[in-house]
From TrEMBL:
Record has Cell membrane as a keyword: no
UniProt name for this protein: Ribosome-recycling factor
Gene that encodes it: frr
Any coiled-coil regions, as ranges: 113-165
Major location (coarse): cytoplasm
Keyword vocabulary terms for this entry: Coiled coil, Cytoplasm, Protein biosynthesis
Compartment(s) where it occurs, according to its Swiss-Prot or TrEMBL record: Cytoplasm
Pfam families: RRF (PF01765)
Amino acid sequence: MFDTAVYQSKMSAALQFFEEELKKIRTGRAHPSMLDGVTVAAYGTTMPLNQVANVIVADSQMLQVTPFDPANLQAIAAAVRNDPSLGLNPSDDGRVVRVAMPPLTGERRAQIAKQLGDKAEECRIALRNVRQEAFKSVKAKKEAKELSEDDAKRAEKEIDKLMADFSHRVESAAQAKEREVMTV
């Protein structure tokens, strides 16, 4: 019998990565994970923001970034300002960096929805690659006479069923996030 658990875990990993990417997409409300992709030039190297500062939600439209070392304040503000995918303009008061979330315009919402669609397609491509890898493995085992014709067909159907399940989960997560983005 063909074991699909390996391919199921690979598909699950692709879905988890997609869900993490969704957290970074801005929806109009402030959320600390929006700044997860920001890297800061500190201590002579580039480091993720969460390793040089604490990010909290001050209110629904404001993030507050408190650096562990006040010397990194300017570098943190510059890193947030220079990230084009965020489009944010932080301000600092000498102790903390405040990142105000400007209201989303209709045009910006459409851009974010398009970005969301691109990320969903990347996930679907990753899922299809895992499916192709599984099909190649089934074919190789069938040619090596390790699997009978019937077992190979059953394995292919099971892989297709997994693919359909994960595709549905990606689609529903993308639609939920798109509804959240488009809500004014």
